[in-house]
Design goal:
Glutaredoxin, four-stranded mixed β-sheet, 104 residues, alpha+beta, 4 helices
């Protein structure tokens, strides 16, 4: 089963969750703001994997982060759905965490 690291505080994470639920994708949801164990598990990924290099460089958090069945990690939930030929349904208003509105 895939794992999705995120937070209910993050608009991108909520949109990812809504889409995964809509399409019946089974996943383990890991709320990185729920406790230190969840946060440390996420930070271990974020601090060591190359996929997070842009996040570390630009100051973004890097969520939602999807750990696929094969252990690979992607930060592109829309691409994850596209690979499965599943449509992405966006909210009319797309709030973002970053001050410039570009994502989380």
């Amino acid at each position: 089963m895939i794992r999705v690291y995120g937070s209910p505080l993050c608009p991108d994470c909520r949109e990812c969750k809504e889409n995964f639920d809509r399409h019946g994708i089974a996943y383990e949801e890991i709320d990185i703001t729920a406790g230190m164990r969840q946060l440390k598990a996420f930070l271990k990924l974020r601090d060591t994997l190359d996929v997070f290099d842009p996040c570390r460089a630009n100051g973004s958090v890097g969520i939602p982060a999807i750990v696929k069945e094969d252990g690979g990690v992607t930060l592109d939930w829309e691409g994850f759905l596209a690979e499965r030929n599943l449509p992405v349904v966006y909210r009319e208003e797309r709030p973002a965490c970053r001050i410039d509105g570009s994502g989380c």
